[in-house]
Design brief:
The chain is of the alpha+beta class and 246 residues long. It contains 8 helices and 10 strands. The chain has helices spanning 16-22, 39-46, 67-75, 82-102, 122-125, 164-173, 183-192, 235-245; strands at residues 11-12, 30-36, 54-61, 107-115, 144-152, 157-161, 193-195, 203-209, 215-217, 225-233. The strands form 2 sheets. Strands 1-2-8-5-10-4-3 form a 7-stranded antiparallel sheet. Strands 7-6-9 form a 3-stranded antiparallel sheet. The relative contact order is 0.22.
Length: 246
C-alpha cells in the first residue's frame, strides 16, 4: 500500500446496501459509494498534468504494495513533481484496497485509465450501452460486484433498458467477426436505454457484473479524465481473470 506524502487517506464509506450484499439479503444492480477526499487530495488530482494518455492493469492481493508500479505509470503521463505522483498513486492504491476489504475479498484487479479529449465521429459520441459479462468462475448463487470511480473528468453513464430481453439479444449480436458494431442495431440499442441521473459529487459506483449486470457506457471524453475500476475477488478468481487476459 502506498503512503501519501500529504497525509490524505480516501474514505470509502460502507452503505446499508453493501451490508445487505454481505449478509446475502439484497443484491441491487447499482450501489452508489460515497468517497471522501480531503481538499488537498482533490487539488492534487485536479492539478495533475496530463500530457499523454495511458492505462495500466494491476493484479494484487490485499496489503500488497502496488505503489511502485503506480508511481512509474503516473510519471509517464506528464511533467509532475514527485509529491503529486506520490499523492495520486496513494489515493488510487488506498481506494483499491479499501473497496476490496469492504467486500471481504482477498485480491483485486485494478485498472487505471488516463485519457484526453479526442475528435470523435458521430458513432463514437453515442452511448455504447453494454453490461459486463462474467470475469471468472463463481460459486452457485455468488454475485460479483465491480467498483468504478472517475477521479477527474467525465463520469461513466448508467442506464435502464425499456426491454431488457431485446437489449440482451442485441448485445449478443452487435459485433461482427472483425469487432465492428452493426450501425442499425447500435441505434436501436441507444433508443432502448434511458440514461440515469449522473451524480455530481465525488463518489464511486459498485455495480453487478455477469448475469443481471448493470447497463453502462463510457462517456464521450470532453476533458482530461482519470478513471479507475476495481474488481475484487478471491485470489484464484483474480488469477483466472489475469490468465484470460494473457
Amino acid at each position: 500500500m502506498s503512503e501519501m506524502l500529504l497525509g490524505e487517506r480516501p474514505m470509502i464509506k460502507e452503505t446499508p446496501e453493501i451490508r445487505g450484499v454481505l449478509m446475502g439479503e439484497q443484491f441491487p444492480a447499482l450501489i452508489e459509494i460515497p468517497v471522501s477526499l480531503e481538499d488537498s487530495a482533490l487539488e492534487a488530482i485536479q492539478s495533475f498534468e496530463i500530457e499523454r494518455t495511458g492505462d495500466i492493469d494491476v493484479y494484487a492481493a490485499v496489503e500488497q504494495d502496488i505503489g511502485g508500479v503506480l508511481r512509474s505509470f503516473l510519471a509517464s503521463i506528464g511533467e509532475n513533481d514527485q509529491q503529486h505522483i506520490e499523492t495520486v498513486a496513494g489515493i488510487v492504491s488506498n481506494i483499491a484496497e479499501q473497496v476490496t476489504k469492504m467486500l471481504q475479498k482477498e485480491a483485486y484487479w485494478l485498472a487505471l485509465r488516463v485519457t484526453k479529449p479526442l475528435d470523435y465521429d458521430m458513432s463514437y459520441t453515442m452511448p455504447r450501452w453494454h453490461s459486463d459479462g462474467a470475469y471468472f468462475e463463481t460459486a452457485e448463487g455468488e454475485v460479483v460486484y465491480k467498483f468504478i470511480l472517475t477521479l477527474r473528468g467525465d463520469k461513466t453513464l448508467f442506464g435502464e433498458a425499456a426491454d431488457l430481453e431485446r437489449f440482451e439479444q442485441i448485445q449478443k449480436n452487435l459485433y461482427d467477426e472483425q469487432g465492428r458494431p452493426d450501425p442499425v442495431m447500435t441505434e436501436e440499442l441507444v433508443s432502448l436505454v434511458s440514461a440515469l441521473p449522473t451524480p455530481t459529487k465525488m463518489g464511486g459506483v459498485m455495480f453487478q457484473v455477469g448475469e443481471g449486470g448493470a447497463i453502462h457506457s463510457e462517456p464521450t471524453v470532453t476533458q482530461p479524465r482519470i478513471f479507475m475500476s476495481v474488481l475484487p475477488g478471491d485470489v484464484s478468481q483474480i488469477q483466472e481473470w489475469k490468465q484470460l487476459q494473457g
